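ARCHIVE CARD
SHELF: 3
SLOT: left
DATA:
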Amino acid sequence: MSTKTCFVIMAIGDQEIDGQKFTYNDLKGKYDDLIKEAVLKARPNLEVVRADEISLPGTITTDIITRIMHSDYVIADVTFPNPNVFYELGLRHACRPGTVIIKDKSGPSVPFDIAHLRYVEYENSTAGLKNLASQLSTYFDHFDREPARPDNHLLELAKLTSYEFQNYKKAEELPPEVQAMMGLLGSPALLEMIVRQQSGEAVDQAEMMQLLFSNPSVIQPFLTAMVKSGDLSFGNLISGNLLPNK
């Protein structure tokens, strides 16, 4: 079983609220000793990563965006009014469910635009760590039970209105044999000649070759399938005998 992942979004560089300054080391300590510890108490086998563990502080890279897009869970600490945090939270909300918003109880109020969303308040203490771990465990269990259930306003509205997101997934390529059959269905005259030949009737090989090569969308998968199956050799290609007689 593959290890599930949890990406932590939070302010990383020096911050200031109401004249009180918080250094990088202060925030790193909160992450290591409280947030990450609480996550691992809730789910010991999770892979937990913060942005500065895969990128330079203050930068948003492909690695970070990939984590935002694909992590099973994302925890967003919105204690500080940090633009990077809210940008990354917005990206996650647009991608998929599975996000827990948290904030330090001693910090400022949650911004209006996300105030309607559920969030977990924590205290930076031993009791606070235990309580945060318990609530995270509850959220993780909920996400596991209903992985597709929207957890933010954007996804709720998308579901309600049947909004169709841009689909960048590559279409699965059909096997050559299937492509060949689809091509034959698009050329009734050629299909008829093949059926006649397979029934033992003599057909004009030159006419069959002309029909095949007049339509590249038919011949390309047709030849690919035959080469793959061993039914086509250079000799019978030259002779025009593309299909084995019954």
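SLOT: right
DATA:
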Amino acid sequence: MTGTGELTYRRVHRGTPELLFDCMTTPEHLAHFWGPTGTTTPVATIVVDLRPGGAFETTMVSDADGGTYTMRAVYVEIDRPHRLVWIERDVEGGMRTTVTFVDLGDGRTEVVTHQTNVPEAYLSAAARAGFETGLDRFDAYLAGLNAGPERE
């Protein structure tokens, strides 16, 4: 058996906790940013059954070679707009992800992603850097939402 660890990512985004929570729980939003740079996550491959015991599934597709990676999780806690928790039972040890949305009171929200039972492969510098690019994509997507519709 390999060892597991834990990871914490913190990022401040422009937007209310409600907006960020909804972006993380709506397939039409998730398809725009879920996964690291170099992947796409087609909306048709995203399942969000937003209730304790409900499924959360995504399939990321590599832009380079078309390879796929499916994440299958089960929601264990939903407290809109404060907290979202899921467990990936397929990952050895059952990796648990807790996302907390902290309203900073100035139109920004700090998102804290805490993962436990993280497999060694996910703890590598390359894997962590890939996760960070997903957060960058989320930030860019939110910036587009905050800009509103484009004017012609």
